[in-house]
Amino acid sequence: MADLNPIGKRIHNISPDPVRLTLDDGTEAVFRVSGAEFFQQEFQAEGTRDDDDGAAYRFVSSADNDAILVGRKGPDEKGWSMIGEAVEAEPVEAP
User: Fold this and answer.
1) Alpha-carbon torsion 14, 18, 20, 23, what sign?
2) What is the pLDDT of residue 1?
3) Is the CB of residue 70 less than 8 Å from the CB of residue 43?
4) N or C: which end of the chain has fewer CB within 10 A?
């Protein structure tokens, strides 16, 4: 069996504590992740972003499990949009 995605493992291990994610476009934000789970190799989770009230986020493995993709659905939106790929996941340091 192939290894689990390292970014997915990191998100899983840090949550439910806040997670600072860096996306492939350089965006860095703090997410509150819930329900982080692996189904065999596939990762999925849901969450919110500290600076984006009302929006929901989803974190899922790519088809080949090589990337963790981040989707966003705003409070007035009917569908999800892909906002990028998580390239780093770190715990949020206490102030």
Assistant:
1) positive
2) 47
3) no
4) C
CB 65 within 8 A of CB 6: no
Q: Are 60 and 44 in contact (CB under 8 A)?
A: yes
| Sign of the CA dihedral with 70 first, then 73, 79, and 83 last | negative
Q: Report pTM.
A: 0.91
Closest C-alpha among 27, 13, 30, 12 to residue 85: 27
Six-digit token string for 45: 């989770």
Which pLDDT value is given to residue 81? 96
Calculate the alpha carbon distances from 72 to 3, 84, 95 in Å. 27, 10, 27
25-69 tens-digit pLDDT: 999 999 999 989 999 889 999 999 999 989 999 999 999 999 999
Location of structure tokens 């689990």: 4
